[in-house]
């Protein structure tokens, strides 16, 4: 009996084994699950992506299977099973994992279905346009001087509220149009846009702020493949034989200094309140030739067809006017147009007279430089002489026509000035008409004892301009690393400021060596209010802000390194 039972068990096992051997995939396939990686595809037109399909048993193991592709969105892409994927040594392929290659043809949103062992899955495909050669359809490519065209995006792609437009003639170049194109409007379905263009528009249209309908908040740029062209206008005003030449005309070509020049815009063009003008001797903006000063702008006429300005003295070149617009379409961005004529402006003599006077409040010889009629000094005026240190300003006339200086010791040269004003012209420079021989020796003012140093008052110099200063001998006993206050080797000055305001002390020296440091100490000699000694560069400066007039301070100078020679100059400037 037991033998019979054993035989039945063996027989049952054999039957079960025979049953499994007859169809090894049957029971596994019935319980398999289809897994697709990735679950969606996002690529640009003209590129490819890979999708992998696998059938898995309930325990996650791969099982053999077969797969097919169906329902790919027409014209957007192709999806093909790679039959050569995972080759084996004897040929063929392993059927537990299948690769599908997706090739994007044009922009848009679509999908395809993978069906096989374990079920079926639909894979979404999002295709962005080729950023350098997008599938944008233009209503026209050859444009008139002032024209519009419409641009239509591929299916599934939309313009957005953030869309902007430009025209480019190379992959990375800037907008190549004379006038930047204007986005006139976008259709209700956001599939088309109307663009207005001006002359000199050659290249591809590029839109920024494009999005797929499936991901409307993710935007990107796209450039069309069609080449646009519009008539070329010569705005340099050099080729009068060109039918489309555009240039500004001038009422005079050889104006005197302070003569007003009137410019007339070409027909159909207007100046704007933002228009500027400069003279150029060559074709690029690097060839500026405004002369001794930049032009003074008077402005456009009421109808914006004319523009008045004062060209700078000694200016020579074509007048180039910026920020001009087309009367027929002022929405276009600004363009620059040159004059056909060349301006040659008379020169302005900028030679000053020099006289000597004695300043009783300072023990140095003061030189007063008087400007020619019409010229004025300004708070930005600067005096220079050859050498390490500039002259010290100690006075400016009430009418700003002259300036008093303590010239740099040991120099013999004319004084040069910058920041001069002549009527409405600013930034002029000139050199005095004769040299001044300045002795190298200067008085010995400062002392090692701060309480025995000279008492100096800063003068009030008219129109709220407060300046003063002096030259002194450098008398440090121990040149080198010595920037310790109170060791008896400093130069101290007790200075009373006659006005409140921001006060800047500037210390400079005529020699090449040394590294002077400066300290501003309160009148009670209890605390340092400001100091400068970070670098060896000329000069050193420190600023304080007294709130009341007739406030006194100690100014101390030390030498922190090297051997210092020459004379020390201290300039005091107050901005009320």
Could you provide a short overview of the structure?
The chain is mainly β. The protein is elongated and about 105 Å long.
Rg to the nearest angstrom? 42 Å
Structural class: mainly beta
Low-confidence stretches: 1-29, 238-243, 354-363, 460-465
N→C terminal distance:
126 Å
The overall strand count is 43
Helix content: under 10%
- The geometry reads as elongated
**pLDDT averaged over residues:** 78
How many DSSP helices?
Answer: 2
Largest sheet: 8 strands, mixed
**Relative strand content:** 35-45%
What is the subunit organization of this protein?
A: single chain
Structure description:
The protein has 576 residues and is mainly beta. Strands 25, 26, 27, 28, 29, 30, 32 and 33 form an 8-stranded mixed sheet that branches. Strands 1, 3, 4, 6 and 7 form a 5-stranded antiparallel sheet that branches.
Topology:
Blueprint: H1 2-22, H2 26-31, E1 33-37, E2 40-44, E3 48-56, E4 62-63, E5 67-70, E6 77-81, E7 97-104, E8 108-116, E9 119-128, E10 137-138, E11 147-152, E12 157-168, E13 182-186, E14 192-197, E15 204-212, E16 215-223, E17 249-250, E18 261-264, E19 269-270, E20 277-280, E21 296-300, E22 306-310, E23 316-326, E24 335-344, E25 351-358, E26 365-370, E27 375-376, E28 382-384, E29 392-396, E30 402-406, E31 412-413, E32 416-422, E33 425-432, E34 436-437, E35 455-458, E36 466-473, E37 491-497, E38 502-509, E39 516-522, E40 528-532, E41 540-544, E42 551-559, E43 567-575
Parallel strand pairs: 2-9, 25-33, 35-37
Antiparallel strand pairs: 1-3, 3-4, 3-7, 5-8, 6-7, 8-9, 10-11, 11-14, 12-15, 13-14, 15-16, 17-18, 18-22, 19-23, 20-23, 21-22, 23-24, 25-26, 26-30, 27-32, 28-32, 29-30, 31-34, 32-33, 36-43, 37-42, 38-41, 38-43, 39-40, 39-42
